[in-house]
Design goal:
With 471 residues, this protein is of the alpha+beta class. The protein has 6 helices and 28 strands.
Length: 471
C-alpha cells in the first residue's frame, strides 16, 4: 500500500535559478556526508556515518593515531561498516510505504556507519572511510574525550533555512572561534523539511569537514518530523527516515522505541553529562521519568539538558506550558546547571534562582547564587520578533531574562574547567554578544563574571531590514 505525502518542493532560496539538482547532491561510489557522533563512551570510542550510492553494499573505515609520520595509513586498523539501504522517494510506516514527493525520483542510497572502540582518552586520532573498493575519503583528525580536564564545545540553535547560503557562515565562524571544540551541539531544526534530501545535502556541505572532525550531538526539532502517519491525519508526525541512518547515536532500551536515538545521554567526561530530550512527542512522561532517574544517578560535576522547545519561550507569542510544568520541577530538583534550546528564532539567556521567595525584580549581579541558566538561540537566518512581555510572565518561577536579541545569527562557545563554566555567545561576524561565568562549589553555583560591556541589544529596529522566511 502506498500513501502519497504532499511536501512542497518550492525553492530553497530566492536565487536558486533553475532549481536543478546540484551535482554535489548526488551520491556516488565515493563517500560523502561524513559525520562523527557519540554512541558509546566518548573517551574510548567514536561513531562515524557516511553515504554512497546504493550499489555499495560493503564498506569499511580505518583509524590510527594521528602522529606526525607521513604514512600514518601503514599503521591503521580496519573496521567493517554496517550498511543500510535507504529509499529517498518513500519511507516505511510498518508495512505502508509513504511517498516523499519532495525527493521526486531520486534513487536509493546506502548509509554506512562504524564505531571505533578501544581508543585512548584525550588522544588525537586520524580516520578515513571507504565507499566502493579503493574509493577512500581524506583522513580526518579528531580527539577523544578527556577523563577530566578543561575543554570547550559549541552550541547552536536552529539552522533550518538558507542552510548552505547563510548558515554555512555560522558553523564556519564557530569553528574559527573554537577550533579546539570537542563537539558541536545542534539544538534541533537542522533543516526545514526533514525528509527532503536536498536540504540535508546543504547541511552537510555547509559544515563540510567540520562534521567529520568535530563530533555532533544532534537534537530532533519539530522540522525533523515532517511525515504524517497513515490514518493519523495531523495528529501524528513521524521522524524523518533519514535521521537514524545519518546519525549513529545512543539507544537506551528503557525508553520507548520511537525516541531511540532522539532521547539519550552523552557522558562526555567526569565533568559533564549532556541529556538530550525529544520534545516533539505527544507523551513526554516516559522521557521525564527517564530524565529524573538519570539525573539522580549522574555523578558528573556539570549537567546540561538540551531540547528543541524552550522551557521559557522567547519568540513571538510562543509558550510551552505543559512542557514547563513537566520538566522544570525535574531540572530544579536535580540542580541542572544549563538548559540549551532552540525553536524560537531569537536569542535569550536567563538565570533562575529557585531559592527566592518572590519574583526577582533586579538582574543578577556577580556573587549572586543561582540554580539554572536557560538559553534559547538561533544560528540560521530565519528570525522572529521577541515576545513583547519578555520573560515577565515567568517571574514567579524565579527566572530573570538577562540578555536578549533579535535579527541575528548566533553561536555559543561553552568551556568547562573544573569548578568553572564559561559561556560566550557570538554573532556570526565573530563578535562577542553575551558572556558570563559560573562557579560551582558542591551544590552551590554563583555568578562570578557578568560582562557589562556587551554591545547594544540587537533589535529589528536597529539592524538591517529583514525579509523572510523564503530564502
Amino acid at each position: 500500500m502506498a500513501v502519497a505525502l504532499a511536501m512542497s518542493a518550492g525553492p530553497l532560496f530566492a536565487h536558486d535559478g533553475d532549481h536543478k539538482t546540484p551535482p554535489w547532491q548526488d551520491a556516488s561510489v565515493w563517500p560523502d556526508r561524513v559525520i562523527a557522533t557519540f554512541e558509546a563512551d566518548p573517551a574510548t570510542s567514536l561513531a562515524v556515518s557516511w553515504r554512497t550510492v546504493a550499489s555499495v553494499t560493503a564498506a569499511r573505515a580505518e583509524i590510527t593515531l594521528a602522529t606526525p609520520d607521513a604514512r600514518i595509513d601503514l599503521a591503521a586498523r580496519s573496521v567493517q561498516a554496517q550498511t543500510e539501504r535507504v529509499e529517498l522517494d518513500k519511507a516505511m510506516f510498518g508495512d505502508t510505504a509513504i511517498a516523499i514527493e519532495a525527493n521526486g525520483t531520486l534513487p536509493a542510497v546506502a548509509y554506512h556507519s562504524v564505531r571505533f572502540d578501544d581508543l585512548q582518552p584525550d588522544t588525537l586520532y586520524a580516520y578515513r572511510v571507504m565507499g566502493a573498493d579503493g574509493h577512500w575519503s581524506e583522513w580526518f583528525q579528531t580527539r577523544t574525550a578527556p577523563k577530566s580536564r578543561p575543554f570547550r564545545f559549541v552550541y547552536m540553535g536552529d539552522a533550518q533555512n538558507g542552510v548552505l547560503s547563510l548558515w554555512s557562515r555560522t558553523i564556519r565562524a564557530a569553528f574559527q572561534a573554537a577550533p579546539d571544540a570537542r563537539f558541536m551541539l545542534h539544538a534541533g531544526d537542522l533543516v526545514n523539511r526533514a525528509s527532503r534530501d536536498a536540504e540535508w545535502a546543504e547541511w552537510f556541505k555547509a559544515g563540510s569537514f567540520i562534521h567529520a572532525m568535530v563530533p555532533a550531538i544532534p537534537v530532533a526539532g519539530n522540522h525533523e518530523y515532517d511525515q504524517t502517519a497513515p490514518g493519523e491525519g495531523d495528529r501524528m508526525k513521524l521522524l524523518s527516515h533519514l535521521w537514524r541512518p545519518q546519525f549513529r547515536l545512543p539507544v537506551d532500551p528503557s525508553l520507548p522505541g520511537e525516541v531511540h536515538e532522539t532521547a539519550y545521554v552523552v557522558k562526555y567526561s567526569a565533568d559533564l553529562d549532556v541529556f538530550v530530550l525529544d520534545t516533539n512527542q505527544r507523551d513526554m512522561a516516559p522521557q521525564a521519568q527517564w530524565l529524573d532517574a538519570n539525573l539522580k544517578a549522574s555523578k558528573a560535576r556539570w549537567r546540561i539538558v538540551t531540547m528543541h522547545h524552550p522551557v521559557f519561550s522567547s519568540g513571538g507569542d510562543r509558550d510551552s506550558p505543559k512542557l514547563r510544568d513537566l520538566v522544570l520541577p525535574i531540572l530544579l530538583r536535580h540542580n541542572v546547571d544549563l538548559v540549551l534550546q532552540g525553536h524560537d528564532h531569537t536569542y535569550a539567556r536567563g538565570l533562575l534562582d529557585a531559592g527566592i521567595q518572590e519574583p526577582r525584580r533586579r538582574g543578577f549581579v556577580v556573587g549572586d547564587s543561582l540554580t539554572t541558566m536557560f538559553v534559547n538561540s538561533v544560528s540560521g537566518p530565519k528570525q522572529y520578533q521577541f515576545r513583547k512581555q519578555g520573560w515577565d510572565d515567568y517571574a514567579p518561577t524565579g527566572v530573570k531574562l538577562e540578555r536578549q536579541g533579535e535579527n541575528g545569527q548566533f553561536f555559543q562557545v561553552i568551556g568547562i574547567d573544573g569548578d568553572r563554566l564559561s559561556y560566550t555567545a557570538y554573532t556570526t561576524d565573530g563578535e562577542a554578544y553575551d558572556h558570563v561565568e559560573l562557579e560551582k562549589r558542591g551544590s552551590t553555583k554563583r555568578l562570578i563574571e557578568n560582562d557589562k560591556d556587551a554591545p547594544p541589544t540587537r533589535r529589528f529596529d536597529n539592524s538591517l531590514p529583514y525579509k523572510g522566511p523564503n530564502f
